[in-house]
Amino acid sequence: MLHPDLLGYVAAFFTTASFVPQVLKTLQTRDTRAISLWMYLLFCTGVALWAVYGILLSAWPIILANGVTLLLALIVLWHKLTET
User: Fold this and answer.
1) Angstrom distance (rounded) from CA 46 to CA 51
2) CA 82 centroid distance within chain
3) Alpha-carbon gap, residue 69 to 83, rounded angstroms
4) How many CA atoms lie within 13 Å of 8's alpha carbon, on the beta-carbon side?
5) Angle in degrees, CA 75, 79, 82, rounded to 5
6) Could you say which DSSP state residue 36 is in?
7) For residue 35, what is the DSSP state?
8) pLDDT at position 1, please?
9) What is the pLDDT of residue 84?
10) Mean pLDDT of the region 34-41
């Protein structure tokens, strides 16, 4: 049987890795017109709250996954907010 933390780290890897293509595309093209500002604002808020939740529980899979995901999502959000 899988240890719960191992399962958490595997899930964290896949959900966090899913943001990498969007970040790379945003950095390459600087085009965020098709990206919803509200979705990214809400998503970043939710991910930040998940990270705080993980900190309160001392749950490293939750902390790491949401910390990295928040960083990636903030990169896209920053480009969205500063697009010309």
Assistant:
1) 9
2) 19
3) 21
4) 12
5) 135
6) -
7) S
8) 62
9) 62
10) 94
Q: How far is CA 40 from CA 6, 52, 74, in A?
A: 28, 18, 8
CB-side neighbour CA atoms (13 Å) of 17: 6
**Cβ-contact 61, 8 below 8 angstroms:** yes
Residue type, position 83, single letter: E
Question: What are the tokens at 77?
Answer: 């959000």
Other Cβ atoms within 10 Å of 82 Cβ, number: 9
Structure tokens at 1: 């049987």
Q: What is the model's pLDDT at position 83?
A: 83
pLDDT tens, residue by residue, 45-70 = 999 999 999 999 999 889 999 999 99
C-alpha of 7 from chain center: 18
pLDDT of residue 2 exceeding 80, the answer is no
DSSP helix/strand/coil, 30: coil
